[in-house]
Design brief:
Elements lengths: L2 H7 L4 E6 L9 H7 L9 E4 L5 E6 L5 E6 L5 H12 L2 E7 L5 H13 L4 E5 L20 H12 L17 E6 L10 H13 L4 E6 L3 H13 L6 E5 L5 H11 L5 H8 L4 H21 L4 E5 L4 H11 L1
Helix pairs in contact: 10-11
Bound molecules: flavin-adenine dinucleotide.
Amino acid sequence: MKVVDHIKNAKGTLFSIEILPPLKGQDIKSIFDAIEPLMEFKPPFIDVTYHREEYLYKKRENGYLEKVATRKRPGTVGICAAIMNRFQVDAVPHIICGGFSKEETENALIDLSFLGVDNVLALRGDAIKSEGVFVPEKNGNNYATDLIEQITNMNKGRYLDDEVENAAPSNFCIGVAGYPEKHFEAPNMKSDIKYLKQKVEMGAEYVVTQMFFDNSKYFEFVETCRKEGIQVPIIPGLKPLTTKSQIAALPRIFNIDLPNDFTDALDKCKDNAAVKEVGTEWCIQQSKELKAAGVPVLHYYSMGKSDIIKTIASAVF
Ligand code: FAD
C-alpha cells in the first residue's frame, strides 16, 4: 500500500523507522533482528537507505595508488523484498541520483515494480566522500526533481526507450526529503522551499524531514511550506542522540542546531551511557509534543539500534 494511503487510513500518529543495509559481507539476520523488536508498534512502512559507491586508494606493488570504487552497503532492493516477505509491511527503498545513469535507475525501478514495492523516496544523494561536491553520473539525474520526472514518466508508462510499446505504467508513490533547518547547499530557506515545492508539483506525494532536535524548527517549516502552497503530509524524522561525538558531528554533517537546553543537559554527561540517557529522554519529549500536535507519522532514524527506539516508542505509543 502507498505511504499516503497508510496516512489517510490512520486513526492517529503512525510509527515508522529507517534502516541501513548491513555492511557488505553480513547476512540479512542483522536486519531482521533490528526490526523484530519494533514490530509491536505496527510500522506500516519501513524505509531502507541507499548508499552510493565510495573510492578507496589501494597501494599497488609498484608503489602507485590505485583508485578503487566500492559499495560498502549494497542490497537495498533485496532487503526491501526480504522485509516485505518476512514482516508483511511495506518497504520504502531510497532511490538516489548519485552514481546511477538513468538506465540503471530505470532497471532498479522495474525490479521494484515487479517485487510489488509501491513506494520510493526520491533523493539526489550526497557527494562521494572524497570528492566534496555532488557530481551527477554521465546520463544520470542531477537533482531529485530530475529523478521525480523519471519516476512520474514511468508511472505514465513512459520509459527511456521510446520504442517500448503498450508499456505498463508503474504505480510508485513518491516521497522526498525536506529540511526544516535548510539543506546545507541552499543559499537560503526561501530557495530551498522553492525547490521543495517544485518536487511536490512534479509528483512527490509526501515529505520526510531531515532530523531536528528543536520542534519549533519543524513547526515553523510546516507553516512556511503551507504558506507556500505545499499541502502534502510532512513526516518528521527523529534521531536519538547517543554518543558524545555526535554532539559536534550531527550539526556539522546535517546542518542542524542543538537547542541550548539540550546541550546544557549533554554538557553534564560524563560518558556515552549518560549521553544516551539524555538523548533518549529528549527524543521521547520531542515525540510526545509532535504526536500531540497531530503529526501523521513519527519516523525514526533507527541506525539498527532497536533497543533505544523501542524505549522511545514504548513511552510514546
Ligand atoms: P535535492 O532536492 O535535489 O536538493 C539538493 C540541493 O539543490 C538543495 O540545496 C536544493 O535547494 C537545491 N535544488 C533542488 N532542486 C534544484 C534544482 N532543480 N535546481 C537548482 N537547485 C536545486 N542520501 C543517500 O545517499 N542515501 C539515502 O538513503 C538518503 N536518505 C535520506 C533520507 C532523508 C529523509 C533525508 C532528509 C536525506 C537523505 N539522504 C540520503 C541525504 C540526501 O541525499 C542529501 O541531503 C542530499 O544532499 C540532498 O538530497 P535531496 O533529495 O534533498 O536533493
